[in-house]
Amino acid sequence: AETFMDSEDYDNAIKFFERLRRLEDLDDTDRAVVRFKQGLAHYRRASENLRKQEALSKMPLQERPDAELNFDQTPRADFAKVKETLRGYGTLFPQSPYVPESHYLLALTYEQLNQDEDSISELLLLLKEADFNPEMIADLESSNAVRDRDYSAINKMKTIWAFWKKKTGNYLANKFFEESEFFNAYRIYSALREIDSSPSWQIPVLYQIALCQEKLGNYVQAMETYSEIEDYVNS
């Protein structure tokens, strides 16, 4: 399955991940990997077919090939499969390092299906989590004495969660801003502030918040936010 995935043969990757998923003797760690990778394969196939459709639409009609995809291989069917496979992933596999990326894929999937409110909800769910999955840290810390805790694993999980929060939030917030959906962009930028307290993160996020407030006509709040940026710089 991994070999097919790496070679971008998503049809076979999906087929073999599905076979693995049906095995009854998989342990939870392996099952978590298989389920995530299956959803990822569907997402990548959908994205690839969207690119192909876009390229075909630019070709003259007489030069376009006649072959059509089976319904279960169309982007819409694949995106529906991503939803089915990854929705609730964090509840089923709370210790998986793929939990934050599953939120990211779901947010992008809802966006492709024009379900913007679900996309924002998925993102906010990711942003409002702890530094990383709270059940993961609880297990790591409570099951071991202080001297036996794997702090390298804990720090690795924190880094993974912070990365996907920033990546997901920036992508969707910037997209909403570019599409003049300033209230949705404002909601996301405001949630992004909580991820990182460093000035290098806070200043650009505050600037985007101020721009959104200005676009929404909230000039007093925008002035206050611009002043907050000045305070960061001056200090």
Can you characterise this structure?
By secondary structure, this protein is mainly alpha-helical. It is 72% helix and 0% strand. The chain is built from 12 helices and no strands. It has helices at 2-6, 10-21, 28-57, 75-86, 89-92, 99-112, 116-127, 134-142, 151-178, 182-192, 199-215, 219-234. The chain is flat.
Give the SSE order as H and E letters: HHHHHHHHHHHH
Mean pLDDT figure: 85
User: What is the CA-based Rg, rounded?
Assistant: 21 Å
Helices and strands: which structural class?
mainly alpha
The parts where pLDDT drops under 50 for at least 5 residues are 130-134
Helix coverage percent? over 70%
For the record, give the distance between the C-alpha atoms at the N and C termini, rounded to a whole number.
Answer: 53 Å
Strand content: under 5%
Annotation field: number of helices: 12
Number of strands: 0
Can you tell me the overall shape?
flat
Q: What characterizes the major β-sheet?
A: none
Question: Any descriptors?
Answer:
72% helix, mainly alpha, 12 helices
Q: Short description, anyone?
A:
The protein is mainly alpha-helical and 235 residues long. It has helices at 2-6, 10-21, 28-57, 75-86, 89-92, 99-112, 116-127, 134-142, 151-178, 182-192, 199-215, 219-234. Mean pLDDT is 85; it is low at 130-134.
SSE layout:
Layout: H1 2-6, H2 10-21, H3 28-57, H4 75-86, H5 89-92, H6 99-112, H7 116-127, H8 134-142, H9 151-178, H10 182-192, H11 199-215, H12 219-234
Helix pairs in contact: 2-3, 3-4, 4-6, 6-7, 6-9, 7-9, 7-10, 9-10, 10-11, 11-12
